[in-house]
Each structure stands twice: as structure tokens, then as C-alpha cells.
Amino acid sequence: MDKNLFSKTLFQKFVKIEGSGGILLLLATLLALLWANSSLGDSYSDLWNYKIGFKTEGFELYKPLILWINDGFMTIFFFLIGLEIKREVLIGELNSLKKMAFPLFGALGGMVVPVAFFLILNQNPETLKGWGIPMATDIAFSLAILNALGKKVPLSLKIFLTAFAIVDDLGAVVVIAFFYSGTINLTMLIIALILLVFIYILSYKQYYSKFILISFGLVIWVLFLKSGIHPTLAGVLLAFSVPIRQKINTPEFIENLVAITSTIKMSAISKKPILSKEQIQEIDDLQDWTSRYQSPLQHMEHSLHGWVAYLIIPIFALANAGVNLTSEVALDTQLVVNIILGLVLGKSIGITAIILFVKKIKLINIPKDITLRHIIGTSFLAGIGFTMAIFVSNLAFESDPFYNLSAKMGILIGSVIAAIIGYLILRIKPNSAG
């Protein structure tokens, strides 16, 4: 099979998972809204605020269910983001300056301009810390819309959006690390970093063990949590320790595969529905060779995509998207409007303007099948900030439900408007000249 065709097939499978996950994310969001605004609204709040965990005299991990989801479940989401960033930087769409330029400049415009919109429009010092909310892009929702457009959009546009969203996620990770972490306990943080360095050294020495990664990962997660650094960042840093290289190459694997197959063929076949000792030995060898042939990073990324897209993100949405829409609930209208404008106008203007500018001064090359209409439409889709935007909102307004509720309302409305505009622009049939 042609290598480029194989790569495209893998990417199309990835897009399919993310797109389907986006649909499930939408259903979870609608369910959360219906539940929170129904006669059972109190049960929605009571469920997510129910505390679970354990306490001892010198140690406590006792948190509301919603924080276990936001701090715990979402660490797995961030771990996957870390795997994607490492893969893209080493062998993917970000592995050279030429490849990186197009999505990198787009992401920069898509982060800087929405933040500028928010800072210029914001008049309330108490809501200033929400500046990071409109800079986020939700890849699941945006890819779900691109998938719904089918052949109306080229595959290269989906690749651009994916690479753009990964750079955007990296930017969000940096912002969370430096601006949305609490008071830092240096002792806890130093211990966590020492453990991380130990795992990195093992990886460098070509030793990789899931057991060590998970065991150390849990300890590092707790240390980050107790240090004041947001624990989801532990997920990203742990992901960087997962090796991308295979222990054996393809010719060696095929050679051993042929040898194992030949041995199984020549061995006596039992009439009973069990394997002979020789066959069991060969199957064990096959599993060993297969594990050595697989890239640990690729294998883990492939294994986690379904869990994240179909379970973790929908549960996050279910727990966080339940905004009470009744007229009795007060909202900070200015904050709502600022976030809407940041997501809809900030994203679209920022991405489109910077891409056109750097193209004019010849810093980037845009694929021939991507037109100006595609760029403008995708820039609006990038304004769907849902998952990461809500996550940042929870961090920014953790101690102020009034502003958090207002921010979530702005995120929901802004994301819907951006999605509709982006979809309609990309759906327009180009004329014969275009």
C-alpha cells in the first residue's frame, strides 16, 4: 500500500472518531441543559456536588464529583493531547517549519486576537481573569461539522483544522500552567518533577513499562494537585515520556511473523478446541513480537481515542454544560457578550487576517485545494470553544458561580453561532470561477 494513502487512511479514521465523538458531545450537552432546566434540576446540582474520596489525619482526597471529573478524568484527555502534540511534532503535520507554519500562524491569530477582544471589551476587574476563555477551540465539535459537510471540504482542510487545534491546545496548556494554577507548593512540585525526570530517563534508555507509567503517573497527579499546579498538566508531561519509536523494524517483524506462521502450520492440530503447547508458545512469541513492533505512543493514542471521545468528553459535558436558562437566574450580560464576540469575531478575524498576511509576505504555502472560503469558514468553526473553554472557565471562576455561569452561557451561545456561520460558509457552492 502507498505510504501516503496509508497515512491518509489513518487520519480519516481519526477524523471519524473525533466527528462521531462530537455528535455524542452535542447529545450530552443537550441532556445536561434539559436536566438542569427541568423539574429535576436540583438533582443535577446535587449529583455533581456530591463529595467522594477519603480522608486520613495527614492526607485528604475528598472532592465533589464534578472536580473528580474536571481534575481526574480530564487528565486522561490532556494525556491524549500530549501524545498528539508529541506525534505531530516528531513525525506529523508539525514536524518541520514548512509544515508547521500554516496551522501555527492560524493558531496564533486564533489565540491572540480573541484575548485582545476580551481585554479591550472587558470593563469589570472581577471578570478580567476570564481572558483565556475565548482562545480555545473544540476539535471534536469542529471536526464533526466538517465531517457533516462530506466532500464539500477537502481532506487537507481537516488536516489543517486538526493541526491548528493541536497547536491551540498546546497554547491552552501553557496558559493554564502559568496563569490558572494556584499558590505553588515548591516541595510537592519538585518531587513531582524528579519523578517525571526519572520516567524520561527510562524512556531515553529505551525502557518503557505501562505499569511504571501508570503507577508513577498517579503519584505525580496527586503531587501536582497538592502543589497548586493544575493536575491535568501532569497528563501532558507524562505523555511526553511515552516513546514513539518501535523496538524492531518492519522487515524484522515480517521475518519473524513468517517463521511463526510456518511453525504453527507444521505443528500438529488438535481435534479438541485447544492449542498444542507448541502453538501456545508460538502465539506467545507473536504477542511479544507484536508488542515490540508497535510504537508505544501510537498504540496508546489509538487505545485512548475511543475512551476520550465516547466517554470522558461526553461525561465532562454532562457535568459542566448544565447552565440554568430560566429567567430567574441572574447573569453578567457584559461577560456573556464579551465571550461571544471573542469566540465568533475574535477567532474568525484573527485566523483569517494573520493567514492572509503571512501568505502575502510569503511565509506560508497554503494547499491548492484550500480556498479563501475554506479558510474563513474554518476560522468560524474554530470559534467553537466548548470543551477547553468551559475547562478554562471553571479554573478562572472556580470560586464564583455567578461569573462561571455567565461565562458558560457565553461559551454555549458563541459556539452555536460560530458553528452555524462556519457551516453555512463552507456549505456554499463555489461558482465556476472559484
Explain the overall architecture.
It is a multi-pass membrane protein. One of its GO terms (molecular function) is sodium:proton antiporter activity. Belongs to the NhaA Na(+)/H(+) (TC 2.A.33) antiporter family. The protein is an all-alpha fold. The protein has two domains: 301 residues, Na+/H+ antiporter like fold; 40 residues. It contains 16 helices and two strands. α15 runs antiparallel to α16. The protein starts with a helix and ends in a 7-residue tail after the last helix.
Which descriptors would you attach to this protein?
single chain; 434 residues; mainly alpha; 2 domains
Task: Compute the number of structural domains.
Answer: 2
Return the CATH topology of the largest domain.
Na+/H+ antiporter like fold
Q: What percentage of the residues does DSSP assign to strands (E)?
A: under 5%
* Assembly state of the chains shown: single chain
**Low-pLDDT residue spans:** none
Kindly report the name of the CATH homologous superfamily of the largest domain. Answer: Na+/H+ antiporter like domain
The number of helices is 16
Shape: globular
Main sheet attributes: strand count, strand direction, barrel closure: 2 strands, antiparallel
CATH architecture descriptor text of the largest domain: Up-down Bundle
Number of DSSP E strands: 2
Question: How much helical structure, as a percent, in the residues?
Answer: over 70%
**What is the distance, rounded to the nearest whole angstrom, between the alpha carbons of the first and last residues?**
34 Å
Mean pLDDT, to the nearest integer, reads 85
Sheet/helix structural class: mainly alpha
Order of helices and strands: HHEEHHHHHHHHHHHHHH
Transmembrane segments: 65-83, 104-121, 133-150, 186-204, 211-233, 304-323, 335-358, 370-397, 409-426
Catalytic activity: Na(+)(in) + 2 H(+)(out) = Na(+)(out) + 2 H(+)(in)
Pfam family, one: Na_H_antiport_1
Function: Na(+)/H(+) antiporter that extrudes sodium in exchange for external protons.
